[in-house]
């Protein structure tokens, strides 16, 4: 039996494998063809073999750059003045809209909006101002209405705690009413009548001992006015409140009813919108982005 001939390659000489090299080139060509991006009428597709995974490294590449490819992100601002300053710095009035949403009390500037007819903006570069209620307005709203009627002591404490917000009649006059009631812990209220000046006069009897008593009259204003800020970082607003009472078995409970507080909120927010429309130079729309 003749042994097969063995061909040896001299040391240091490159091995010639034309068939293996050709096969490798073909495999590379097939792999490249299988993973290339195909454009089909504006839609892009890539065919991957089973078991392969696709990773989007766009964000990682962008973060390694000196600056981003485009502006994006949302900033939350606490005042209209800050919103106006930010809008001025962006200088995007030609492609941006500002949206004012009265229901959510938000003003949103979308700097890369789709304002221009042939400009498809990403709409992801924004500045948002949200009007937040002040603590004093929240306090008065929380105790508003007949469902929040207060007894003598509680009413006096509430008036004293929020004395700085009362403008008319004088805060002290209303406090005197409250403290007079709270000081007389053993009094029996009998009747009430309305005076010519619009105030209410309550007739009461103060117990001196088990068998005797002293009578008196207590005048209560029909309404009072508040001067308070509705939103943070805003100016003051005037609100009217009607003072109410209820007699029950010799005791009395007080409450107040704010006169259309929702209208005051709307007016205060509308003032923000008017200011942005006047000073921003942007087109302002009513609605949400």
Secondary structure layout:
Layout: H1 18-35, E1 38-40, E2 43-45, H2 58-63, E3 73-77, H3 80-90, E4 97-101, E5 106-110, E6 125-130, H4 135-142, H5 152-161, E7 166-168, H6 171-183, E8 187-194, E9 200-207, E10 213-220, E11 223-229, E12 236-248, E13 251-258, H7 261-279, E14 283-286
Parallel strand pairs: 3-6, 4-14
Antiparallel strand pairs: 1-2, 4-5, 5-6, 7-11, 8-9, 9-10, 11-12, 12-13
Helix pairs in contact: 5-6
Question: Which of globular, elongated, flat, extended, rod-shaped describes the shape?
Answer: elongated
Q: Strands across the major sheet, in which order?
A: 3-6-5-4-14
Total separate domains: 2
Structural class: alpha+beta
Order of helices and strands: HEEHEHEEEHHEHEEEEEEHE
**Gap between N and C termini, in Å?**
89 Å
Oligomer: single chain
Mean pLDDT, to the nearest integer, reads 80
Helix residue percentage? 25-40%
- Low-confidence segments: 207-215
């Amino acid at each position: 039996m003749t042994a097969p001939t063995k061909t040896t390659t001299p040391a240091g000489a490159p091995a010639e494998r034309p068939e293996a090299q050709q096969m490798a080139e073909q495999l590379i060509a097939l792999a490249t063809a299988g993973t290339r991006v195909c454009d089909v009428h504006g839609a892009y597709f890539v065919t991957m073999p089973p078991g392969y995974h696709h990773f989007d490294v766009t964000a990682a590449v962008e973060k390694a750059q000196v600056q981003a490819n485009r502006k994006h992100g949302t900033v939350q601002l606490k005042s209209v003045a800050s919103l106006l300053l930010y809008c001025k710095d962006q200088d995007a009035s030609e492609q941006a809209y500002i949206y004012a949403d009265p229901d959510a009390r938000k003003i949103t500037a979308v700097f890369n909006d789709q304002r221009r007819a042939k400009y498809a903006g990403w709409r992801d570069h924004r500045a948002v101002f949200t009007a937040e209620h002040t603590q004093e307005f929240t306090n008065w709203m929380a105790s508003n209405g007949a469902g929040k009627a207060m007894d003598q002591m509680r009413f006096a404490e509430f008036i004293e705690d929020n004395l700085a917000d009362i403008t008319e009649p004088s805060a002290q006059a209303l406090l005197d009413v409250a403290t007079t009631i709270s000081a007389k812990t053993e009094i029996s209220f009998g009747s009430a009548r309305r005076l010519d000046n619009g105030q209410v006069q309550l007739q009461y009897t103060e117990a001196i001992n088990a068998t005797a008593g002293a009578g008196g009259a207590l005048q209560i204003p029909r309404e009072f006015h508040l001067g308070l800020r509705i939103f943070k970082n805003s100016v003051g607003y005037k609100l009217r409140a009607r003072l109410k009472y209820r007699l029950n078995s010799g005791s009395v409970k007080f409450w107040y009813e704010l006169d259309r507080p929702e209208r005051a909120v709307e007016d205060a927010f509308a003032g923000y919108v008017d200011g942005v429309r006047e000073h921003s130079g942007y087109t302002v729309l009513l609605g949400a982005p």
